């Protein structure tokens, strides 16, 4: 018995150390800095004000589908934000698009998925989440037209949003994010370690120049706070979860799941989508779940089912569906869950059979 416990703990520790060594410094830390900058320097009101049911669909659904990258939301914060924009007068379509796409295209999740599971999976996750969120949102808007009619009836209650004008040149914030992204790309590249350090040093100096001359001390402090807030919310869960998954894989090896999700059949993709809809996986934890526990990195899980689970897991789970039922009722929640599972399975099926 002691040998079993020791073996399980050792595998959990080995799994954790491997993930921390390979991904934290070059991947997660730069991504936390980018996500913190997005939360601090990009105005949320500028995104949310376009969700009205009378807004141009190409604008409202387009913004809703990519707002997760701007708002840096995760699976634990998307639900209250979703409830908030519904109360503020959002149309059901853009709100659902935001609900589905938000956690799936979180900048942290996309970067981490691409780094651990492969660039093709990372790109497929981002593109599929955007496209499916729009399709699902449009279907929900078509089915539940009464919601938008009620919102229009209460149009006078719409909130006014501040413009949030800034004195600094508009190019500064853009340059700031380009430099941060460049650090991320260089850090994860295959360049010689000394060359990477040299390039990152000069990029960091450029960022420091922008922060000193174009940002106030309060803004820099807010950026630091947002970085810390994201880190303390996500990183401990990721560490504990990765360790627990390593321990779990000792008792349930990845080969166990191969008969069910080891190919790119429609049934395998549907199975993976259902698993993702049931399990609760905090932001980023879906990556080691797929990579280690379900065996994608060891060849026991096919590409299609991996994408299917990535598209359902961050957006729905049994706990989140219970919360959604209280927010928008059982009928809308049920239809939403069915659409997410079906379209995610279909996306995984197409991806797996084309690029698998």
TrEMBL record:
Its main location: membrane. The chain crosses the membrane at residues 23-42, 63-86, 92-114, 126-144, 171-187, 194-214, 234-253, 265-285, 305-324, 336-355. It comes from the Archaea. Keywords: Cell membrane, Membrane, Transmembrane, Transmembrane helix. The keyword Transmembrane helix applies. InterPro entries: DUF318 (IPR005524). It holds the Pfam family ArsP_1. GO terms for cellular component: plasma membrane. It is found in: Cell membrane. It is a multi-pass membrane protein. Belongs to the UPF0718 family. This is Permease. It comes from Methanospirillum stamsii.
